[in-house]
Known about the structure:
By secondary structure, the chain is of the alpha+beta class. About 50% of the residues lie in helices and about 20% in strands.
Amino acid sequence: xxxxxxxxxxxxxxxxxxxxxxxxxxxxxxxxxxxxxxxxxxxxxxxxxxxxxxxxxxxxxxxxxxxxxxxxxxxxxxxxxxxxxxxxxxxxxxxxxxxxxxxxxxxxxxxxxxxxxxxxxxxxxxxxxxxxxxxxxxxxxxxxxxxxxxxxxxxxxxxxxxxxxxxxxxxxxxxxxxxxxxxxxxxxxxxxxxxxxxxxxxxxxxxxxxxxxxxxxxxxxxxxxxxxxxxxxxxxxxxxxxxxxxxxxxxxxxxxxxxxxxxxxxxxxxxxxxxxxxxxxxxxxxxxxxxxxxxxx
Length: 297
């Protein structure tokens, strides 16, 4: 008799629950909300990933000199971070609709994130800095740069480290998080500056005419010169020489070679025209009644 009453009560409770319209209405609303959260999250993930892919495709036409596999790796990394973040938020919203208290979950996630952050803060800083170095195109592989007072050619740009090689062969490795100052010599045209010294006895008008001829010849022969070289005039008056200054705008990081070529061409033309390069002179004074004697060192 007791068992019959128990089953009868259970049947009545189940029947009441099944026939409860308000309960089914609430279940339907919650189900619709969950479906909407899933659909919207998938749409948002697709839109954001398409935007990220478009951004990286646009970066291919920039000055960024990177291996295509690295560009694809960066794109996949960013897309994964976006997807996991948005899906994690969607899961939290679904759990909230199911009536699950999210405070313990958020507290646990916060404690775990704090522990990971303290343990790997330098690594996280390096990765974030490396990402922005690559994304903002601050410098590229092959650029001639000065990083933290070290000068050389960039050999590698990674998410964690940057590697440069100096002109004498040393390789310097920098964690990206320690890079505080960068000077890039490969982005803009550089200026070749050559100071030419001539003797005081030379006619400056003739010297300028010869220099103009040399500069016209250099502009036609040296492909690194991108604009007409200029004669700035007298730069300094020394003990035994007059210094003339000439300049030439060159392609990025080619001014050293242009300087050497200009000096050689000027020296050759001066020799042909008989224009003397100054040399130190000594004037010796003899005793009373003696003449003066002039010589050279």
